[in-house]
């Protein structure tokens, strides 16, 4: 392809609304253009990368028996009401009415649609198992779209669904998809991690995420340095050293703490580490959109943060519980936040495992400006449950007992779930087993953010000059900077190289503009194709051309007579490299 025949407009300046490098570079390189907040047009070069990644996905899912379908983007309200998610999904589900006053939504995910698709066809255990997938546009009405395609409203997603007769079969399908995802991201050529994760409102009791590592990643991952344990911080078990105190219980003592409203202020005034203090929080142990008010007290060490995802799972909620407002805290405890504690509370108290065995604790006195010294479990307050309630963090013991945890930042690009019968039971997707009894189909769900993955790859792989595309999905394999576009000798060499590359299935982009070499080099670095070939009258006079590796900036001098063969070999070598 020639620049003069393409549709490509690059920008010198960073767009004002682009916060992270990958978003800035994709806009500057003409890969995407914003139509509305969170909604983008994909330019022809981004579309080439997208189709390459989709090809990888189709190949790897095909190896595992995946069958491709394409479901509607518009869904009727009725199927979402069957599962209860019409209300549960909240404002993120974009809802509308047609001219007949019937209610619909734009598909944010397709569990309901695919379950409806199969329930009319599957009759017997002989019809199972199978795995269906699609690559399709999704829409989620993000409250604050940002970071380009990373958190947009409209995006391309691959979603797959497995259907089995029993849990053993469903877990086998889960493992097959796990290995397919490993292969997909290895072929993409990125540094990624697989971590235990929360299922969110998709459901199910087994879930793993695939993350591309990047400093700007929204998710914190905790990885054991001495084993393969890895988890999203949201669900990572928090392991604490056991507390064994031989101290006797001292008398409860109330003391003044005026103007001390935070753990840090209290720790500084008492000259003790914050982890020696107790943090008191109040949650409503009910669904956030419910009118039920069920206050619960949660205790952690002062240095820790309560984990709302763990609370959600412990209490069997669909969404994380709501923290009480300052006014509500005063109504249930008699004090404002900063002076609250478990002594005298008339509500269940949940305590994190890290506090088990502690004696003579400092806690709020439930009176503004006062705390207690020497508060002891059993004598001064009771605990309804001990549980893992806190956020794990770097330096904690690994849950597998093989070392400590290290923190990484990651961008979630894939998520796999074992769903069980959450959707099949509610939507009556059933089959007759060998005994003639009706059984709900066992399901799994598997998603890859296709457009998100490509931007995440750029976020991981770029420099000050521009994008460094993984060779597997680069829009073109070779970028030719034709420094003398009117030179017959240069054009003849380009034609020869082009034929050689096309014969081996590689692609070439030729910058044939009437521009200065410096402008062409800057645009080539911005666009980020794996290799750049500089062809000009000066180099041709010396009987050679320059081949530049985009990632390393290494320059190779290649004799003109050997150029087609050597460049073809360099392209093939690049296409064979993977990072994992």
Explain what this protein looks like in three dimensions.
- Helix 12 (488-503) crosses helix 15.
- By secondary structure, the chain is of the alpha+beta class.
- The chain contains 15 helices and 31 strands.
- The strands form eight sheets. Strands 3, 7, 8, 9, 10, 11, 12, 21 and 24 form a nine-stranded mixed beta sheet that branches. A five-stranded mixed beta sheet has the order 16-14-15-17-20, with no helix packed on it. It has a five-stranded mixed beta sheet with strand order 28-27-29-30-31, with helices on both faces.
- The mean pLDDT is 94.
- The radius of gyration is 29 Å and the shape is globular.
- The protein folds into three domains: 46-72 and 110-235 and 406-459, 2-Layer Sandwich (BirA Bifunctional Protein, domain 2), CATH 3.30.930; 253-387, YbaK/aminoacyl-tRNA synthetase-associated domain (YbaK protein, Alpha-Beta Complex), CATH 3.90.960.10; 476-575, Anticodon-binding domain (Rossmann fold, 3-Layer(aba) Sandwich).
- Helices cover 27% and strands 28% of the residues.
- Strand 1 and strand 2 (39-42) form a beta hairpin.
């Amino acid at each position: 392809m020639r620049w003069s025949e393409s549709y490509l407009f690059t920008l010198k300046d960073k767009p004002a609304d682009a916060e992270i490098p990958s978003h800035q570079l994709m806009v500057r390189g003409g890969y995407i253009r914003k139509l509305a907040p969170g909604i983008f047009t994909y330019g022809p070069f981004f579309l080439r990368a997208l189709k390459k990644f989709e090809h990888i996905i189709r190949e790897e899912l095909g190896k595992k028996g995946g069958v491709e379908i394409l479901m509607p983007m518009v869904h009727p309200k009725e199927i979402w009401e069957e599962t209860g998610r019409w209300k549960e999904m909240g404002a993120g589900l974009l809802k509308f009415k047609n001219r007949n006053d019937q209610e619909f939504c734009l598909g944010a995910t397709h569990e309901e649609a695919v379950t409806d698709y199969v329930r009319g066809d599957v009759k017997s255990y002989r019809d199972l198992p199978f795995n269906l997938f699609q690559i399709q546009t999704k829409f989620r009405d993000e409250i604050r779209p940002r970071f380009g395609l990373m958190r947009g409203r409209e995006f391309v997603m691959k979603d797959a669904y497995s259907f089995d007769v029993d849990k053993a079969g469903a877990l086998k399908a889960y493992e097959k998809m796990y290995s397919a995802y490993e292969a997909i991201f290895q072929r993409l050529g990125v540094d990624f991690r697989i971590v235990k994760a929360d299922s969110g409102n998709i459901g199910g009791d087994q879930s793993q995420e695939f993350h591309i590592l990047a400093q700007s990643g929204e998710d914190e991952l905790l990885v054991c340095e001495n084993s393969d344990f890895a988890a999203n911080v949201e669900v990572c078990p928090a392991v604490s050293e056991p507390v064994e105190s031989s101290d006797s219980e001292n008398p409860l003592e109330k003391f003044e703490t005026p103007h001390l409203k935070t753990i840090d202020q209290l720790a500084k005034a008492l000259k003790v580490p914050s982890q020696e203090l107790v943090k008191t929080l109040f949650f409503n142990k009910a669904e956030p959109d419910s009118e039920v008010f069920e206050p619960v007290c949660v205790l952690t060490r002062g240095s820790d943060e309560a984990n709302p995802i763990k609370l959600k799972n412990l209490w069997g909620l669909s969404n994380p519980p709501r923290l009480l407002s300052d006014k509500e805290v005063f109504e249930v405890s008699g004090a404002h936040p900063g002076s609250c504690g478990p002594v005298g509370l008339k509500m269940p108290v949940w305590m994190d495992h890290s506090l088990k065995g502690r004696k003579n604790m400092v806690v709020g006195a439930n009176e503004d400006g006062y705390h207690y010294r020497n508060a002891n479990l059993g004598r001064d307050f009771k605990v309804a449950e001990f549980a893992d309630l806190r956020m794990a963090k770097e330096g904690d013991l690994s849950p597998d007992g093989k070392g400590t945890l290290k923190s990484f930042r990651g961008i979630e690009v894939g998520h796999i779930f074992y769903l069980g019968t959450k959707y099949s039971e509610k939507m009556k997707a059933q089959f007759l087993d060998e005994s003639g009894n009706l059984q709900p189909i066992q399901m799994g769900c598997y998603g890859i953010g296709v457009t998100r993955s490509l931007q995440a790859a750029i976020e991981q792989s770029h420099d000050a000059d521009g994008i460094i595309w993984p060779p597997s999905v680069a829009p073109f394999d070779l970028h030719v900077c034709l420094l003398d576009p009117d030179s017959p000798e240069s054009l003849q060499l380009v034609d020869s190289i082009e034929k050689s590359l096309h014969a081996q299935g590689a692609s070439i982009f030729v910058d044939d503009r009437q521009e200065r070499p410096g402008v062409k080099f800057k645009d080539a670095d911005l666009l980020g194709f794996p290799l750049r070939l500089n062809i000009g009258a000066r180099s041709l006079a010396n009987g050679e051309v320059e081949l530049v590796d985009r990632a390393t900036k290494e320059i190779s001098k290649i004799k003109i007579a050997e150029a087609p063969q050597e460049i073809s070999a360099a392209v093939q070598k690049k296409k064979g490299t993977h990072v994992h």
